[in-house]
Design goal:
Order of helices and strands: HHHHHHHHHHHH
Helix content: over 70%
Mean pLDDT: 81
CATH class: Mainly Alpha
Distance between the termini: 18 Å
CATH topology: Mitochondrial carrier fold
Strand content: under 5%
């Protein structure tokens, strides 16, 4: 006599509903949804970030820049680099949420206890470092793909023949970078300022979201409503990003540091900061902040809401054990 389907599926459902596994899977879905929604603003932020002093191809308001992108490249311009970004963000977000829940028991005061804000900050920072380490090559390639089709005259005269030229794909670009830019370590260029910026960003994101979720939870309720989760995610993402934004600018600059025509060749993080402030002022460290905040709020709102929605479904999939 064959075993009932529930008994056969139970080990698999139990594995999926494990908090770490469920968070890993839900994090991947959340990352893909959140980044696709804000892809045009994500690309515009990168174009602003990599444009140094004396270059004005995208020195304009956000609506005009988006209009320029649409006129020159159409819908594909809005989505340029998004495929690579999603390929990167799915494992990045999955590892980030999964590793947070993996580290969580080590910092909880007792098994199953909720973390306090400082514990969430530390766990979030560790989760950020873990996710960056695993997915950084995809991030640097995404940055290259995001700017190669843009109408930077300096790039058209250098590495790219023009915005309509056929561009290499993700894996082809990885191989080209490794061959021409000093080996496979080229795929990790800029990882130090990235880790320095991502660790506090992710830590603050988890800490602020947890705090805001408690604030938005009505007395006697188990958790906040769907709209409150969206608001908590938007606030957490906006505040965390503003506090750590200069590190994001440094990350982008180092990722394209070897591309001809960009107007800079930084030797170190200190040299980069000094040069940017000298040539562009302190505001240079915050280039692209406005479009970034415009995309971070809906992005993190969608990310946290999707994550908790999918995670709760997965956690509840485990059927009761038949005795």
């Amino acid at each position: 006599m064959s075993e009932p389907p529930t008994k056969i599926l139970q080990p698999r459902l139990a594995a999926i509903s494990n908090p770490v596994v469920a968070s890993f899977m839900a994090g991947g879905v959340a990352g893909a949804v959140s980044r696709t929604v804000v892809s045009p603003l994500e690309r515009l932020k990168i174009l602003f970030q990599v444009q140094s002093a004396g270059r004005d191809a995208y020195k304009m308001s956000i609506p005009k820049a988006l209009g320029k992108m649409w006129r020159e490249e159409g819908f594909k311009g809005f989505m340029a680099g998004n495929g690579t970004n999603c390929i990167r963000i799915v494992p990045y977000s999955a590892v980030q949420f999964g590793s947070f829940n993996f580290y969580k028991p080590a910092f909880a005061d007792s098994p199953g206890a909720e973390l306090n804000p400082y514990q969430r900050l530390i766990c979030g920072a560790l989760a950020g470092i873990t996710s960056v380490t695993f997915t950084y090559p995809l991030d640097i390639v995404r940055t290259r793909l995001s700017i190669q089709s843009a109408s930077f005259k300096e790039l058209q005269a250098g590495e790219v023949a023009g915005p309509r030229a056929k561009l290499p794909g993700m894996f082809a670009l990885m191989v080209t970078m490794a061959k021409n830019e000093g080996g496979w370590t080229a795929l990790y260029r800029g990882i130090i300022p990235t880790v320095v910026g991502v660790a506090p960003y992710v830590g603050l994101n988890f800490m602020i979201y947890g705090t805001m979720s408690q604030y938005f939870t009505p007395e006697g309720e188990h958790g906040p409503s769907g709209w409150s989760k969206l608001a908590a995610g938007a606030i957490a993402g906006g505040l965390a990003q503003t506090c750590t934004y200069p590190f994001d600018v440094l990350r982008r600059r180092f990722q394209v540091n070897t591309m001809s025509g960009m107007g800079y060749q930084y030797k170190s993080i200190t040299d980069a900061i000094t040069t940017i402030i000298k040539q562009e002022g302190v505001v240079g460290l915050y280039k692209g902040l406005t479009p970034n905040l415009l995309k971070v709020a809906p992005s993190m709102a969608a990310s946290w809401w999707t994550f908790e929605f999918v995670r709760d479904i997965l956690v509840e999939m485990n059927p009761p054990v038949e005795i």
